[in-house]
Amino acid sequence: MREVFGLILAGGEGSRLGGVRKADLRIGGVPLLERVARAIAPDVSELLIASGQDDTLGSYTCIRDESTTRLGPLAGIRTAVRYLEMRAEPEDVLVSVAVDTPFLPRNYVARLKHAVAEAGAAYAAWGENIYPTNSAWRLNALRDALEDAGESDGPKAILRKLGATPVDWTAESTIDPFSNINRLDDLIALQRRALHGDR
């Protein structure tokens, strides 16, 4: 049975929110990092936090980008692959998730892991909305794809290269479970959702 490693992508600058660190924002009184960690930690062998240039996030394994230039979410994925080089088997799975995704489905890791058994990679979708940072990757396929990728490439380019399969949650979620926070109105909407007890 393949081991599954979790990766929370938490290195963004939150520039559209005035430079606030998204991991520290609270939804329903709980920091985003804690909400996401709670959702996936029970289903993974080890939980990694890709923290950009910061190493003060949470009590899980914090991995820092090697570059001093902010290169987006793929930098965190690259760092995780390097970290796992001597710790994981080639067929093991890395499941990534953006830190600003506070309403992850309970079966998030399970469904993505199952999809990766059929392909080298899979990504979360809700109807026409796709979420390239919320993905699963077989480590050997991901490592090979990253070798040919440019530093400016993002997760979507790697998923395309691997012929990744979408995993759609519309049949079980009436509200998008991958809604995230880019602007102030997103933050307000998700706070309201938490107050109403929606997932």
TrEMBL record:
This is Molybdenum cofactor guanylyltransferase. Residues 6-162 form the MobA-like NTP transferase domain. The keyword Cytoplasm applies. GO terms for biological process: bis(molybdopterin guanine dinucleotide)molybdenum biosynthetic process. InterPro entries: MobA-like_NTP_Trfase (IPR025877), Molybde_CF_guanTrfase (IPR013482), Nucleotide-diphossugar_trans (IPR029044). Gene3D superfamilies: Spore Coat Polysaccharide Biosynthesis Protein SpsA, Chain A (3.90.550.10). Monomer. Keywords: Cytoplasm, GTP-binding, Magnesium, Metal-binding, Molybdenum cofactor biosynthesis, Nucleotide-binding, Transferase. GTP binds at residues 9-11, 22, 65, 100. GO terms for cellular component: cytoplasm. The gene is mobA. It is an enzyme of class 2 (transferase). Mg(2+) binds at residue 100.
